[in-house]
# Entry
Amino acid sequence: MYWYLIQTKPRLEKYALENLERQGYECYLPIIPAEKLRQGKLTVIDTPLFPRYLFIRLGTNATDKSWGPIRSTKGVSTLVRFGNDPAKADDELIALLKSRENALQDAPERLFEQGERVSLTEGPFAGIEGIYQMTDGECRAMVLIELLGKTASLRIDLKGVRKLSP
# Structure
């Protein structure tokens, strides 16, 4: 038995996982908590560590479960291949991912990190770049901007802040 990689349809990782498990396949979808902005509020949701991918455990013997139904499972796009060979993952990699997943459950991935360069997208300061400082309890971001040669602290709705590309 080996772990193989499946590509899912966009944002249907959990749906594909449920459908494969319902058919009796052993699958693994690494999940991490992450901060997301939903309807203007900062929430922590579980997101796939590898968007559009999950792992499935399959055997190569004639007595093992058939590979045929995988492609036609709802939510599944394809079995990842390199040439004609399906992409394999070692048991050690899966064990490492599971241990890291458990360690990350209490510390969600932050939407913004302190000191990160951001751009303001709404309000009178739209288009100005600043440095993200922190989020307060009212889902507002505190951003440092340079205004008239001086550094000023500004509170703005999180939906009005965007990360700058590195």
Observations:
- The CA atoms of residues 1 and 61 lie 9 Å apart.
- DSSP finds three helices and 14 strands in the chain.
